[in-house]
Write a structure and sequence with these properties.
The protein is built from 9 helices and no strands. By secondary structure, the chain is mainly α.
């Protein structure tokens, strides 16, 4: 069993993505329709962080969990447009940043989606502060460590 896990550890994020897609009604979250599920999965698999690079470089599981959670919360926020959803999205991105700095790539990818979408642009501008607060709270451990260790 350990050989199987070691051999397939670099694709553990696929398990996380598929579990989120299967249990999209968990905790009374939104239910994604089939088109949204396919879009969400394609965004996850073809993103610069987990797509082809996931075959070469093994991102750690906390990053992958936060990445999948942030993508899911992005869809939730884009549909429900709540301040709490914006805060949770930011927290997921911030926690992912605490796991690995490569989480910045997700923020860049999502910003492209926001800029392209005429519906999401004003929503993002209204909730930018909440997303930023969530990111700051989630990334607080990294900032505290860097401050106490003179940014070593």
């Amino acid at each position: 069993m350990n050989k199987i896990l070691k051999k397939n550890a670099n694709q553990c994020h696929l398990f996380v993505f598929l579990r989120v897609l299967k249990y999209d009604n968990l905790f009374n979250l939104i239910i994604l329709n089939d088109k949204q599920k396919i879009t969400w999965l394609l965004m996850a698999l073809f993103s610069p962080l987990v797509g082809g690079s996931g075959l070469i470089v093994t991102p750690d599981l906390p990053l992958m969990f936060c990445y999948a959670l942030a993508l899911f919360l992005f869809f939730r926020w884009s549909q429900l447009s709540g301040k709490v959803d914006a805060l949770l999205l930011g927290a997921a991105i911030g926690l992912g940043f605490s796991a690995k700095y490569m989480m910045v790539l997700l923020g860049l990818s999502l910003s492209i989606v926001v800029m392209i979408s005429p519906r999401l642009r004003p929503l993002f501008l209204r909730h930018f502060f909440y997303i930023l607060i969530g990111i700051a709270i989630g990334a607080l451990p990294v900032w505290l460590w860097n401050v106490t260790h003179d940014f070593a």
